[in-house]
Amino acid sequence: MYALYVTKAGTGARLGELLGLPEANVDLLGRKVHLHQTLGRAGKDPVFGPNKTRRGRRTVLLPDEAITAIRGAVLWRKERKLRLGPKYRDAGLVFCGPRGRPINPSNLRNRDHYPRLER
């Protein structure tokens, strides 16, 4: 979750945009991320859609902290994929759950974000 929060803070991207961010839309060498789709609904059959407006489909520069955090998230994802083998369901997303599936935004807020704010 660290990489997600750092990227969100560093880019100003919406939560749904980051949770639906394909790995192909991240250019770490060019220090930018292309925000063109959002996660509409997570679950067994996730639903992705384009950002609502033309201005919402944009390219954002990544700060150094976000680049380092995303590299760590990609490494974590690859390790999980090797460890779980066929049980890993790769959705091709930068920020995903421990089994490779999209993260439910409501669960993220209720189980992680709000408890962190209270602490």
Structure description:
The protein is of the alpha+beta class and 119 residues long. It has one domain: Intergrase catalytic core (hpI Integrase, Chain A, Orthogonal Bundle). The chain has helices spanning 2-11, 15-19, 64-84, 105-118; strands at residues 26-27, 32-35, 37-41, 47-50, 58-61. The strands form 2 sheets. A 3-stranded antiparallel sheet has the order 1-2-5, with no helix packed on it. Strands 3-4 form a two-stranded antiparallel ribbon. Strand 3 and strand 4 (47-50) form a beta hairpin. Helix 1 (2-11) packs antiparallel against helix 3 (64-84). It is globular.
Short account of what is shown:
The protein is of the alpha+beta class and 119 residues long. The chain has helices at 2-11, 15-19, 64-84, 105-118, and strands spanning 26-27, 32-35, 37-41, 47-50, 58-61.
Number of helices: 4
| Strand residues, percent | 15-25%
**CATH superfamily grouping:** Intergrase catalytic core
Helix content: 40-55%
CATH class: Mainly Alpha
User: So, CATH architecture?
Assistant: Orthogonal Bundle
Net shape: globular
Mean pLDDT equals 93
Number of domains: 1
- Radius of gyration from CA coordinates: 14 Å
Spatial ordering of strands, largest sheet: 1-2-5
CATH fold-level name = hpI Integrase, Chain A
Helix and strand run: HHEEEEEHH
Low-confidence stretches: none
**Major sheet details:** 3 strands, antiparallel
